[in-house]
User: Which sequence fits this backbone?
């Protein structure tokens, strides 16, 4: 079997996605997600202009060799664009391997280690009534774990709370010639958030697993304070408390709080997180198939994490396509140290462009029994949604200083 063709499909059904479609000389196709929110065309070009010419004629079954060939052969290693491009090839080849074997991908990854994959959703609100309504709506959908994000009095639009709250949709990337700018004040945030969780616990009880995303914005000592202040509310995890590249920052946080910590959605290789994992500075690693080099590399990260008691918590926002969600759920079903899976529901049109076998029911995801990933792409429908430049917001402090978003 040889790779005969590889096409990059860029489509924008409500938001931009880049997808690699690999076709073998037997006509078997495989899909890989190549979406890096706000920089989609960079990955599309990396694939089209530099990687696709190398794939034609290769044996699609040689997944590991292809991974090493693309990683080591590039010389310029790591980084979000390179690793998303490698990821797209890797996931597409795993998809092909599953289809040829006639098995759902999780069966090639060791088979099921559990019956279903616990999912968490995103609840948010500009105020407590809206937040309560958002939580209630997601509980009614069957979710058993809920991420809580709230507006902060005195600040305008901030991460995780958007106009789409009422519909449960929140898309951070804005279509337009320039990024939107948001204003941030960590002290106002730190004063406000503990009270939000106190009220959520009063309203929804002590049992419901609650998560929160600080989205890279705190200094180590601010993160330590927030972790301590949230301990009475028994969070499932507190995410991205500090900028992820500063791996040692979490040593100070860990000394001051027992609130479980999660980090890693912006990581793109095992080297970005191996110190965090080996020093047990985190409880959950958030890496995803599209951003961390595909299934081949992601399961290496989860394998390292297992040695140190760190569990998975793969990133699953609307800016990873159903291809990545499917890869995540197959891997989540199989690995021994699964923690939880983020599940932001895509818009219906996205599910039409990417029909998929994975399902959500009663709080759990399951990849389904279709061979391979269990995802396809409706290319005719995809073509009706051409790319539209969109940027993630830029964050500034109240004095105008550029800051982490
Ligand atoms: C967020 C992401 O889901 C999360 O945990 O951190 O939604 C993140 O803001 C987006 O992926 C950025 O594109
Ligand atoms: Mg996050």
Assistant:
């Amino acid at each position: 079997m040889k790779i005969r063709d590889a096409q990059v499909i860029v489509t924008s059904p409500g938001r931009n996605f880049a997808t690699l479609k690999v076709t073998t000389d037997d006509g078997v196709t495989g899909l890989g997600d190549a979406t890096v929110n706000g920089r989609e065309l960079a990955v599309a070009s990396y694939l089209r202009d530099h990687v696709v010419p190398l794939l034609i004629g290769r044996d699609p079954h040689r997944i590991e060799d292809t991974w090493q060939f693309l990683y080591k052969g590039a010389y310029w290693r790591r980084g979000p664009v390179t690793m998303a491009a490698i990821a797209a090839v890797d996931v597409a080849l795993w998809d092909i391997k599953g289809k040829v074997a006639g098995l759902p991908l999780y069966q090639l990854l060791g088979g099921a280690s559990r019956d279903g994959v616990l999912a968490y959703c995103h609840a948010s609100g500009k105020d407590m009534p809206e937040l309560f309504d958002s939580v209630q709506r997601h509980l009614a959908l069957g979710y058993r774990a809920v991420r809580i994000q709230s507006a902060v009095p005195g600040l305008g639009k901030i991460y995780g709370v958007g106009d789409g709250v009422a519909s449960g949709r929140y898309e951070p990337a804005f279509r337009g010639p320039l990024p939107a700018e948001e204003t941030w004040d960590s002290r106002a945030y730190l004063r406000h958030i503990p009270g939000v969780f106190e009220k959520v616990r009063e309203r929804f009880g002590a049992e419901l697993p609650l998560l929160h995303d600080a989205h890279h914005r705190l200094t180590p000592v601010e993160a330590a304070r927030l972790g301590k202040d949230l301990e009475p509310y028994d969070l499932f995890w507190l995410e991205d408390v500090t900028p992820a590249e500063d791996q040692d920052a979490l040593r100070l946080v860990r000394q001051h709080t027992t609130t479980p910590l999660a980090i890693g959605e912006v990581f793109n290789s095992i080297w970005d997180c191996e110190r965090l994992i080996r020093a047990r500075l985190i409880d959950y690693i958030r890496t995803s198939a599209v951003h961390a080099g595909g299934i081949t590399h992601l399961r290496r990260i989860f394998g390292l994490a297992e040695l140190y008691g760190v569990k998975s918590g793969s990133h699953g926002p609307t800016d990873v396509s159903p291809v990545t969600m499917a890869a995540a759920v197959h891997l989540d079903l199989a690995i021994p140290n699964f923690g939880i899976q983020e599940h932001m529901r895509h818009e219906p049109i996205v599910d039409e462009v990417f029909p998929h076998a994975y399902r959500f029911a009663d709080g759990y995801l399951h990849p389904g029994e279709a061979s391979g990933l269990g995802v396809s792409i409706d290319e005719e429908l995809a073509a009706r949604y051409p790319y539209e430049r969109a940027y993630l917001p830029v964050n500034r402090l109240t004095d105008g200083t550029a800051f982490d978003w």
Remarks:
- The longest helix spans residues 80-101.
- The pocket of D-mannonic acid (ligand 1) is lined by residues 37, 172, 213, 215, 265, 317, 319, 342, 392 (CB under 6 Å).
- The mean pLDDT is 96.
